[in-house]
Amino acid sequence: MKSLCGAGVAIITPFLESGKVDFKALESLTEFWISEGLDYLVVNGTTAENPVLSPQEKRDILAAVLGAASGRIPIVFGIGGNDTQSLKRDMLETDLAGVSAILSVTPYYNKPNQQGLYAHFAALAEVTPLPIILYNVPGRTGVNMTADTTLRLASDFSVFCGIKEASGNMHQISRIIYERSRSSFLVISGDDALTFPLLASGADGVISVVANAFPKRFSTMVHAARSGDFSLAQTEHRALYSIMNAIFDEGSPAGIKVAMEHLGLCGSTVRLPLTQVSTGLAHHLKALTDALR
């Protein structure tokens, strides 16, 4: 799906101080992300704090983003977990009208082997109403989906349109880029700091966290690299590099929300078990944000 190339963002969920979803801010942010040049939005990913959103909140957030986007850019919706049968029901029962693709993370906590990962996604492939972006993030799930398994899934099932790769393993990701059996299978960076070198290696884009606060600069970097202007891409990558890393120092999305609050985009409230960042890190993030204005 070439519409999912380029700069995507795993959107945050803005909360009021009361802890309720701030739908007014969400609608404003959707307009901000689109107007600043991002290519697509990912709703209900890790950065959205999806483990602490109720099923109704997830539906309402998706509806709000779809309404604000008004069909101008693709919307991806996260449906992932560690109970294969429940996920099959979710894919069949969720109203996905207006959604372009599903992002589905590898099962966490169960720690399946590679055959288990393959069988899990094969089962989802049988029922999904939309293309699926596989999501490999071993730092959160406790299991790494190898290049062999990813390439096998891509070859065996056309419904898998790509993978968001957040293993941090350049060798593994490069193998997928170079050995994929079809160019329509997208390799998407899941790590902001590695996006520039991955694009230089032939990756198709990114699903970013830092782009929540800096969509124009980040999308400029991605689009420049994809068009072959690596000088401009490196300049933007270098400018963003410090904050790309700092926002994860005490957990995500607590870090990026500090930057967004400092820019007047939304509040920095997160839901337990996440907590707001320390005073020292908040000062550092605000200084880095000021340097990018």
Average pLDDT figure: 97
Instruction: Quickly count the helices.
Output: 12
Major sheet characteristics? 8 strands, parallel, barrel
Query: What portion of the residues fall into strands of 2 or more residues?
Result: 5-15%
Question: What can you tell me about this protein's structure?
Answer:
An 8-stranded parallel barrel has the order 1-2-3-4-5-6-7-8, surrounded by 5 helices. The protein has 293 residues and is of the alpha/beta class. It is 45% helix and 13% strand. The model has no long low-confidence stretch (mean pLDDT 97). It has a single domain, classed as TIM Barrel (Alpha-Beta Barrel), CATH 3.20.20.
Layout of strands and helices, then pairs:
Elements lengths: L5 E5 L12 H13 L4 E4 L11 H15 L5 E4 L5 H10 L7 E5 L8 H12 L6 E5 L1 H4 L5 H10 L3 E6 L4 H10 L6 E4 L5 H6 L4 E4 L6 H12 L3 H17 L7 H9 L16 H13 L2
Parallel strand pairs: 1-2, 1-8, 2-3, 3-4, 4-5, 5-6, 6-7, 7-8
What keyword list fits this structure?
TIM Barrel, alpha/beta, 293 residues, 8 strands, 13% strand, eight-stranded parallel barrel
Task: Please provide a brief summary of the model.
This protein has a single domain (2-241), classed as Aldolase class I (TIM Barrel, Alpha-Beta Barrel), CATH 3.20.20.
